[in-house]
Design goal:
The structure is a single chain. The protein is of the alpha/beta class and 128 residues long. It is built from 4 helices and 5 strands. A 5-stranded mixed sheet has the order 1-4-3-2-5. 16% of the residues are buried.
Length: 128
Amino acid sequence: MNIEQIRDSYLGTNLPKQKNGKSQNEEPRDAAGKTFGEYLTDRNAVDDVRFSKHATKRLDSREIEMTDDQRTRLNEATGKARDKGLRESLVMVDDLAFIVNVKNNTVVTAVNDTERSVFTNIDGAIIG
């Protein structure tokens, strides 16, 4: 049952019209035309990971170029970390390592020389 069905079952569908011509049970929309219910539904769909300012600088300074496949695998691995309840995760994609704040869906740093690296303050690792 979706939000609209639940709302209609409790509020009914034959409510009188407001001055603006809309029924009282019609959800208001924001400037983008979305209702609150649509935002709740969209909340379940996770966007691609974002890169923090620090991570973006690391990518640039280390001349790391990611392919579309690597980005997809990074997103999938972050989703797995989320499913496992991880908060700060090391995500390995090929020879690249990313520390991801899973809750914020944000890469906080990136490393391409993982042979002698030490990673601290993580609660899990995903190899994607």
